[in-house]
Amino acid sequence: MAKVKKQIEEPIILITNDDSIGAPGIRAMVEAVVGLGRIVVVAPDKPQSGMGHAITIGHPLRMQKVNFIEGVEAYTCSGTPVDCVKLAVDKILHRKPNICLSGVNHGANHSINVIYSGTMSAAMEASIEGIPSAGFSLLDYSMEADFTAAKIYVRQIAELLLLKKKDKHLLLNVNIPMATPDMIKGIKICRQAYAKYQEEFDERKDPHGKNYYWLTGEFINFDKGKDTDVWALANNYVSVVPVQFDLTNYELKAKMEKSWKL
Amino acid sequence: MAKVKKQIEEPIILITNDDSIGAPGIRAMVEAVVGLGRIVVVAPDKPQSGMGHAITIGHPLRMQKVNFIEGVEAYTCSGTPVDCVKLAVDKILHRKPNICLSGVNHGANHSINVIYSGTMSAAMEASIEGIPSAGFSLLDYSMEADFTAAKIYVRQIAELLLLKKKDKHLLLNVNIPMATPDMIKGIKICRQAYAKYQEEFDERKDPHGKNYYWLTGEFINFDKGKDTDVWALANNYVSVVPVQFDLTNYELKAKMEKSWKL
Question: Domain named Survival protein SurE-like phosphatase/nucleotidase: which ranges (chains A, B) (predicted)?
């Protein structure tokens, strides 16, 4: 009996970020996964850091095919990172990609940063769509950052995501310490540290005598746990936090059901 | 022995929204809580729906004291709902308010909307700061919506938040059905339903022949549970979902620790 060889379709890897198509981090991401599938890049046309899960409702979006890296299909979008994912699925791919990778972000997205991060929100949007996803961030804000170590872990985790087809809402927040590959001790699966920013707006006067304010803030970690992403990174591990979009506080829910009079 | 009567300080109630200071919903919110404390309104100067947890990093913010409702201190901010909360704490109140209320939003913020909603993100930002908070949304997008029922529940829940001082990260997502007070059966404590939007971008051509895209989408609820916010609202209950900002997926974390080779 003749065996019919099954045609194995090349997986589609959607890549986006929040630092825009011009950032070295997204270039490093593409280079890291070359050969794993058909790579399609859909990234913001300008920096979108701190955009969180914003979507563009009040005005329309533009999208443009651009030259990027040879052999890689690439588009820019005038909207937010979440818009990029939505547009990619509906108007470019016309199907769900097999996995979605966001980043590599220039700067940390550990702990509470997951809430503000456009990088992580893009990955979360894909995860809502049932696409296994990961956001990657390097603890180096510089545009001259060295992505050598980051690329090793991007590839390792991308390969894993391509295998884990059963976990369709799989969403990982991966942070890579600013270190050379030989300094990094490996990967730690972590929980999100309890930390926040202590804001202090920088108040200035414009040439017309009116006040304006720049957001600045100091990062404060309140969490002494050794199972957190902040701890792992401080100890030269790559931190991997599995993330979810069900924000229900089940513990508080149980407490309220028991003791609140509503 | 003479009893020293303790000076009871008036609680500060911070009110914000994402529909802007001009929306009827924020006016209804203020009216609902008159008499419960010193009310301070800090709201966006223009609509900020769908802004999620966005913050303004790349350009400075403006803030302006405005006339609003007699006896109520009010300011507009040029930024996002989250910016409003940060500015209010640092530059207006110079302390944390006792509670923060966000809304009343024109339109539902149940289920997955919690992720995209500027209304809920403002409340979450306050919760990160340790301020008991709630976001309120009425299932009526109209600017002529009737807030009669909403006001009853805003006041009831605001009174409760003022009492629950021990739960400093208390954060509630409250949705009110489009119904008269006598039609509403009461409050249900719920979990976030698993639902999402099926996107379909409306593709158009500008007068110069170039494409542009409007985000549109159909809401699809995959969750048949009777303990969800979507179910409660469809059955004329006010839904209250306790929300958290620790996004760690602990179930997946345990599974990964057991079976992933990293």
Answer: 13-198
